[in-house]
């Protein structure tokens, strides 16, 4: 015979209504009572019918997680499994499931988000990126569905809940670190110029140069477009300049790995001939030869806080938008050398 709420109530010596409130994690129920009821549930092997409860409260108990491109490509980047780990912990703590986007193009992702929203498949959404002119963000902002972002929005900054690093400061401090090692010719291998994080890091790079009276030289900027399909040639042109860089800032660790490979092909030694720093501090970075210096941006915390923000808006639609900045720090390893 199936175990019912009445059986749990009898075992815990409370009313069935109290059991229902414990299942819903009602804040009016004391922690002592919650503990007693949950122990009774476990002893009896009772599992709440969340589908039925969700029909009553008109929630799916599901968070949509939206990536900038297809999940197949995204999961090739170690950033996404780690940010999802943080999201999953927060979601689990609040008894939410996750619904991952699978669209391969921007238009497919937009249609998927519309289906999630209009079909009430999710209670809220987390955007794992921030892009200029992004149709998904604009749709969500107009839809009224609770959502949060990993990354500073390109507009309506104070009206949207988001979590981010101080990317301008991070890039500025990396360049200043190089300057402190005696480097003056510092290149920047950028990310996509329509992503806010890329724009912010380029701004930090330029700020550091200006603060130390170093001229900005566009020849030291390698864009994502230059790297895509033409990486070896882009790095060859950079290093064949009359005054080649002695240090390189890369948009993330994956780009740094790529650049180091091209430098090896050119018989250019890291750090003997050129120093290099990445962002994200992936696990592999500490095992390269030489180990890669990288900015740890607390990826897990980005995911955790993004989910917390989305769930807060779901539970209280009147909650004001919040902006959370998580810490970052440069991890010094063997890919940098003083001049």
TrEMBL record:
Cited Pfam families: LacI, Peripla_BP_3
GO MF assignments: DNA-binding transcription factor activity; transcription cis-regulatory region binding
Q: Does the keyword Translocase apply?
A: no
Q: Which UniProt keywords apply?
A: DNA-binding, Transcription, Transcription regulation
Tell whether Repressor is among the UniProt keywords.
no
SMART domains, alphabetized: HTH_LACI (SM00354)
Describe the location of the HTH lacI-type domain by residue ranges: 3-57
What this protein is called in its record is HTH-type transcriptional regulator MalR
State the organism of origin.
Planococcus massiliensis
Write the gene name.
malR
């Amino acid at each position: 015979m199936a175990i019912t709420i009445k059986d749990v109530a009898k075992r815990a010596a409370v009313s069935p209504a109290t059991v229902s409130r414990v299942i819903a994690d009602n804040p009016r129920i004391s922690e002592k009572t919650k503990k007693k009821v949950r122990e009774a549930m476990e002893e009896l092997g009772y599992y709440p019918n969340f589908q039925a409860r969700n029909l009553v409260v008109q929630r799916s108990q599901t968070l949509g997680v939206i990536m900038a491109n297809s999940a197949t490509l995204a999961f090739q980047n170690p950033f996404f499994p780690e940010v999802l780990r943080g999201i999953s912990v927060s979601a689990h703590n609040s008894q939410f499931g996750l619904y991952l986007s699978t669209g391969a193009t921007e238009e497919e992702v937009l249609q998927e988000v519309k289906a999630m929203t209009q079909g009430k498949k999710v209670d809220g959404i987390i955007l794992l990126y921030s892009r200029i002119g992004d149709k998904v963000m604009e749709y969500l902002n107009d839809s009224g569905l609770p959502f949060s972002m990993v990354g500073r929005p390109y507009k309506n900054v104070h009206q949207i809940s988001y979590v981010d690093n101080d990317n301008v400061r991070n890039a500025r401090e990396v360049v200043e670190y190089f300057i402190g090692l005696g480097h003056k010719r510092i290149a920047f291998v950028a990310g996509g110029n329509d992503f806010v994080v890329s724009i912010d890091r380029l701004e930090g790079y330029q700020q550091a140069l200006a603060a130390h009276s170093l001229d900005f030289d566009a020849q030291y900027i390698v864009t994502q477009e230059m790297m895509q399909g033409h990486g070896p040639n882009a790095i060859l042109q950079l290093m064949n300049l009359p005054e080649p860089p002695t240090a390189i800032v890369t948009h993330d660790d994956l780009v740094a790995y790529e650049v180091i490979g091209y430098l090896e092909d050119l018989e250019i030694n890291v750090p003997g001939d050129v120093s290099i720093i990445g962002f994200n501090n992936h696990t592999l970075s500490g095992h390269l030869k030489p180990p890669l210096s990288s900015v740890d941006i607390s990826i897990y915390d980005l995911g955790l806080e993004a989910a917390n923000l989305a769930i807060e808006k779901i539970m209280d639609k009147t909650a004001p938008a919040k902006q959370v900045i998580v810490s970052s720090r440069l991890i010094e390893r063997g890919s940098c050398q003083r001049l």
